[in-house]
Specification:
The structure is a single chain. It is built from 17 helices and no strands. It is mainly α. The longest helix has 26 residues, at 150-175. It is globular.
């Protein structure tokens, strides 16, 4: 009999694979590669890099699938960005940026290691059980070919697993009746989300938008006067993660407890190496 998957094992695995995927968003390599094909604005580069798998979609599709960005910010760059570079050109530039970023952060020895090859095999096996129904960002990336190089195959699989969970998470947020700004505010209040200054600086919302969302959360009894989650708010955020876990259980159950544990172990070691190499900006996560 296959051992049951421990509670939250899939979430723990996601929590180390997702940042590995995200390293390229904070890398100068992405900006350099996209600037070389005509996309010089950092925000346009982010929208293009993440949306390109869906094709030359419009602002409405990007806003809907990314969820927590102000539509006006998205519309300032999409679909105009596709006039600078086609989705196919963006995907090729993104692949070059990911390759350069991982080599710089992890080093050539680790890139060529058996651990990276093993992690790629495990993550791809897990992704075999991802479902595409009502998961547009996952489905778009699942249509892309798997890269041959193990470190890029690992990144591709991490992307599939990240977007699979993310698409399901958005369904849970909708059911919890949290709009995009309320989702950001409540997540930040847990201390595990993007700091308000980062959210405001990258998502396009104003301080007035943030305060208005905070007021709506206070009216629902989810946030107190100091901006901290009430017990009801804590319970809601925990329920959101638990329900997201249930929607995301298939790939990790498919991989099995031993495989998930091993993938988590390798990915955590890779992530710690990337952190030590300066993969992420200081002060990005927190309540301030």
């Amino acid at each position: 009999m296959t051992p049951p998957l421990p509670e939250r094992a899939g979430r723990r695995c996601h929590n180390v694979l997702n940042p590995l995927h995200s390293t390229h968003y904070f890398s100068p390599d992405l900006g350099r590669e996209l600037a070389a094909v005509g996309i010089e604005d950092d925000r346009a580069a982010y929208f293009a890099a993440r949306a390109a798998a869906m094709g030359a979609v419009g602002a409405g599709t990007v806003t809907a699938t990314f969820y927590n960005f102000r539509h006006d910010l998205v519309a300032a760059h999409v679909p105009a960005v596709w006039q600078a570079a086609s989705p196919e050109t963006v995907l090729a530039a993104r692949a070059r940026a990911v390759d350069a970023t991982l080599r710089r952060l992890l080093g050539e020895d680790l890139i060529a290691s058996k651990d990276v090859a093993e992690a790629a095999e495990l993550a791809l096996r897990a992704a075999e059980a991802c479902g595409s129904t009502a998961r547009p960002l996952y489905a778009a990336h699942a249509d892309l070919p798997v890269p041959e190089a193990p470190h890029l195959a690992l990144w591709h699989a991490a992307t599939l697993l990240r977007e699979h969970r993310g698409d399901g998470h958005l369904a849970v947020l909708l059911d919890a009746e949290l709009d995009p700004v309320e989702a950001l505010v409540s997540h930040t209040a847990t201390g595990k989300g993007m700091a308000p200054k980062w959210a405001l600086g990258t998502r396009g919302w104003s301080r007035q938008d943030w305060e208005a969302a905070s007021g709506r959360l206070r009216e629902r009894g989810l946030l107190d006067a100091q901006g901290e989650l009430t017990q009801a708010g804590v319970d809601l955020r925990q329920d959101i993660e638990a329900r997201t876990d249930r929607l995301d259980r298939a790939p990790y159950e498919h991989l099995g407890a031993a495989g998930v544990e091993r993938l988590t172990e390798i990915a955590r070691n890779l992530l710690m190496t990337a952190f030590a190499a300066g993969a992420f900006p200081d002060g990005m996560i927190g309540k301030e």
